[in-house]
Amino acid sequence: MVKITVWDLPLRLFHWLLVVGVFAAWYTVENNMLDEHVQVGIALFSLMVFRLLWGFFGSETARFSHFLKSPAAAIATLKSLFVKSDEAPQMGHNPLGGYVVILMLLAVLAQATMGLFANDDIFTEGPLYHLVGKDTSDAISWYHIRFFNVILGLVALHLLAIAFYQFYKKLNLTKPMITGKSDQHDGYDTHWSPMNFILCCVATYAFVWAILNLL
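Above: the chain's sequence. Below: its structure in token form.
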């Protein structure tokens, strides 16, 4: 089998920026760098907006239509996890992995959105704090702090899945997310449109700017 493109460049950039962003969010809170934490949260919110757009205008494997299948398909994938096969794995996320990806995206989006309204009860306030008032912001802040454990749980699940495929299925899922290439598939390459990428970036910037400045 020849090596083909499985993950497009914008999707890989998003993935690794998300890894850095989640770590930075944790690090800035643990070290009481709350102003920096707010900036990281805005960056993560922007990443989520871009990913939602790229889910419609990106390459085939990046599109939600490619990996969001029926619950029955996800259950069938779950049942086949421990069945070893010589068949090439599905390009992109399988139906089960697709649901996990959506959960992770929604979780980070929810966390970043809550952060826009949160406060630390001393000096730092999210950029949209003024829209909800102190009492509502305090409630949102309570959930914002504790909801991070949900994200950590999803990250742990993601890492366990990578380890499972690496050691049991003998499939390296990390390398293709770095290089974009895989020699475990045959068929056609996954192509992406630079123009779509530029338009999604511009739309993301415009949307986030409007949220932070017009509201």
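The radius of gyration is 19 Å.
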